Structure formats: C-alpha cells, structure tokens
Amino acid sequence: MKKQSTEDVIDVMQNERNRAPSTLDSAYIPPQHGLISIIPSSWVPYAELMRIGRPAGFYAYYLPYLIGLGYAATVADPIPPPHHLLGLSCLFQVGCIILRGIACAWNDNIDQEYDRQVTRCKLRPIARGAVSTTQAHIFTAALILAGVPLFYFLPIECAYHAISIIILFGTYPFMKRITYYPQFVLGFPFAWEILMSCAALNVDPLREHLIIPTMCLIAANICWTMIYDTIYAHQDLQDDVKAGVKSMAVRFADNTKTLASILSLIQVGLLVITGRQAGLSPIYFLGTCAGSAIALGSMIRIVDLKRPASCAWFFYYGFFYVGGAMLSGFLGEYLLRCRIAG
Binning pLDDT at 50, 70 and 90, where does residue 35 land? Predict the structure, then answer.
C-alpha cells in the first residue's frame, strides 16, 4: 500500500473542508412555519442570519435598553412623560432587531469553521454555504447603515454609545479563541446599552451622585449575562470541547451551578447598592432585588445542565423572570414618582 505524504493528507483535509458547506446545505430543511416560511426563498438565509425566527435572543439585546430607560426615568429631573418612554421603547425595539442582526451575522461569519463542528450550529446560513463570507460582510455593513436613520430621533450622544456597543460586539467571537471568559466580554456591550438609554433621556449617568449606582447596575448586568450565557453554552459543551471553543461552560463544566450561584449573589448585591445609592424606595427593592434573587435561585436550582432543552429553557424564560424582575422595580419606582409629582 502506498504511503500518503503529508501533502496528500493536507489536500484530503482541504477537500473535505471545501465540500462541507455544500454537504450541509443539502441536509438543510427550510422553515415550515412563521415569518421566514412566507418570505422569498432568497431572503431566508439572511433572515436566519438575523435570527428572525428565533425571538429568545432578542430579549438579551432589548432588556438592557428597557432597564436603562427605567433606571434613567427614576433619576431624571424632570420626570420624563410616559409617552416619551413608550416612544423610545419602540425605537429601541426596532434598533435591537438591527443590532442583533449585525452581531449575529458578524459572529456567524467569524465562527463559521467552529459552527460546522457544532451540531446545533452547523446548519446556520454561512456554515452550510448558503451565504458566502463576502456576502455576509456586505450584509453586516448594510445592517449598520440601516440603523443610522434611527439616530435622527435620538441625542447625538447615543450614536457614540452605539459605536462603542458595535465595536464591543465585534470583539466577542475572537474572545472564544483566546480566553475561557468570553461571556465576561459579552457582558460589556449589553451593559453599555444602559448608558445609551440614559443618554436617550438626556441623563448623565456618570455625574457625581449617580456614578456609583450606575456602575453597580452595569456590573449587575454583566453578571447576569455571564450567568445566562454560560448556562446556554452547556447545550454545545461536548462539541465545543472537540472544536476547541473556549467558554466559561468549558472552563467550569460540572461547577457551573456553583459559579452561577456566586454570580447571582454578586448581581443581587450590586442591585441593592444601586437602589441605596440612588435613593430608591422599597418598591424597587421588592421588585428588582427580591424578585431577581427569587428568580435566579429558583431557575439555577431547576435547570439541568446535562439536558440542552433545559439550558434553552433557562435562557429563554430567564429574560422574563430575572430580566422582568430587574425591570419591574424601576417601573414601579417610576410610576410612584409620577404619582407623587402628579
């Protein structure tokens, strides 16, 4: 039998890699339900890049904006009217659809070789070859341009924050290659959205009497991101280990619940400091602090890290229970201020 040279082996591996996208594309089944099932077929890969058919991740982008608006509304002087908050909430909702599309398209492009080795991700549009690397970069740039008109309705400071957020999201996929703590890095662009929300209400969150509560709220959101994204990453734990993807789920593995519990204690503690330093009422502490503590404790106890469906459950419902609790205290505080002022 003829012995293969190193060059022959490399050629075979390269050919397998080149064939991988087309093979994956042939295994792909188009969506049969929802919005993506009724749009033109040529649009489907780009809608999938934006995760249009997967709403769970949208809340990861949207909730920090709402929490930021709630926080800014409780410390703003004068108190912003409800219709202004509602208008900004709708504007940020549109912006988050675009922002999520930008972040996901970029992430999928950078991670395409990893995605082909992960069962859950191997049929994503770029990984399966439905969208080329160049097409994905052009689409990402187009989404960035599509978001520019939104800033016509916002103070100029919001544009500066948006640039920082996009740059931070852009660094995230590279972190999986160099550190076991990419979830920590991911927490920063999400938490930065709080600053952008404050700017939208013309509130300076870093002025002398607000800098401590603002920084604590930002840090609490970073903790929350690390918790839900680490548990979410357990869905792909075995594939990630084989592919060489670094994450906190890989780093802590069987100790993830202990880590999540510690981060939860830190998160709730930071939320308490936020309320005390901002001079908020018991409504905030009951809704945001106690509510978050109960939701986090219950969900961490219930989630089964060995079952991908359970990890996905934690990710999706965590935004309603934990994120909703964090928002509820600020909303209650705002309504109390409106009632007192009225």
Answer: confident
Per DSSP, the three-state class of 42 is coil
Distances, alpha carbon 115 to alpha carbons 93, 230, 243, in Å: 28, 17, 9
Q: What is the pLDDT of residues 269-325, one digit of tens each?
A: 999 999 999 999 999 999 999 999 999 999 999 999 999 999 999 999 999 999 999
Q: What is the DSSP string of 135-196?
A: HHHHHHHHHHHHHGGGGGGS-HHHHHHHHHHHHHHHHHHHHHHH-S-HHHHHHHHHHHHHHH
Under the phi-then-psi rule, with left for phi > 0, alpha for psi from -120 to 50, and beta for the rest, what region is 131?
beta
Count of helix runs (H) and strand runs (E) in the chain: 16, 0
Q: How many Cβ atoms sit within 10 Å of the Cβ of residue 208? A: 7
pLDDT in tens, 122-153: 999 999 999 999 999 999 999 999 999 999 99
- Residues 74-84 have pLDDT tens digits of 999 999 999 99
Rounded CA gap, 311 and 326, in Å?
Answer: 21
Nearest to 295 by CA among 275, 271, 331: 271
Which regions of the chain does DSSP assign to beta strands (E)?
A: none
- Residue 2 identity (one-letter amino acid): K
3-state SS, residue 31:
coil
Residue 171 CA to residue 157 CA, distance in Å, equals: 22
Reported residue count of the chain is 342
Q: For residues 263-280, b (16+ Cβ closer than 10 Å) or e, as one string? A: bbebbbbbbbbbbebbeb
